[in-house]
Design goal:
Bound molecules: guanosine-5'-monophosphate
Radius of gyration: 17 Å
Number of strands: 9
Structural class: alpha/beta
Shape: globular
Strand content: 15-25%
CATH topology: Rossmann fold
Strand order of the largest sheet: 2-7-1-8-9
Number of domains: 1
Number of helices: 7
Distance between the termini: 25 Å
Length: 200
């Protein structure tokens, strides 16, 4: 295994936006990238229910809608969006800035609406959208995770189709990577990051 690479030194860290539909492999690819570049995941706040496997403050900050509104009013979010009907998600800005100042890579796993806001407020971010090899394959992957009801799977699939369409809006994403083969997709994402950190 190669030793982790530190992104920025004097130049500050790197804000990496990684988006893509549910089931595309964002989490796996994100973890591989963070290990390689010694980066950190940004922990989002959400109003959705915590699942049994999730830990508050680690996977998300699970907060009420009233708290979420307070956080918006207090200007605590770098971006925030209603990702599913009635469910809010947002990136707290303070921890992101703290890590960037330390020269680290900070990974935001956020949807297209959030990516669009970050693109506007932090134009120097690096944004990558992960695509499935085909919509049929994505549907198959969502089914095979077997962690949700058929209704939830179909809801995620419909959202995924919308998300892929929305990602095509010009100016939001710098790169699109197809996750056909996992290790090839990881290599490609790492190559994109390296070329941003060390432009030739
Ligand atoms: P899940 O509920 O499956 O953990 O996440 C659902 C979706 O919400 C994912 O596509 C993820 O990218 C998006 N998401 C998670 N955190 C944030 C956030 O802070 N902001 C935005 N805009 N989207 C988020």
């Amino acid at each position: 295994m190669t030793s982790p690479t530190q992104p920025g030194s004097d130049a500050g860290g790197l804000l990496l936006v990684l988006s893509g539909p549910s089931g595309v492999g964002k989490t796996t690819i994100g973890h591989a990238v963070l290990e390689h570049f010694d980066g950190v995941f940004s922990v989002s706040a959400t109003t959705r229910q915590r699942t049994r496997d999730e830990v508050d403050g680690v996977d998300y900050f699970f907060i009420s809608e009233d708290e979420f509104k307070d956080w918006i009013e207090q200007g605590r979010f770098l971006e925030h969006a209603q990702v599913y009907d009635g469910t809010w998600y947002g990136t707290p800005s303070a921890p992101v800035d703290e890590q960037l100042e330390r020269g680290r890579l900070v990974l935001l796993d956020i949807d297209v609406q959030g990516a669009c806001q970050v693109r506007n407020s932090r134009p120097d971010c690096l944004s990558i959208f992960l695509l499935p090899p085909s919509e049929e394959e994505l549907h198959r992957r969502l089914q095979s995770r077997a962690r949700e009801s058929q209704e939830q799977i179909e809801r995620r699939f419909a959202k995924a189709q919308k998300e892929i369409k929305a990602s095509e809006q010009p100016g939001i994403y710098d790169h699109f990577v197809v996750n056909d083969d996992l290790s090839a997709a990881i290599d490609q994402v790492e190559k994109i990051i390296r070329s941003r950190l060390h432009p030739s």
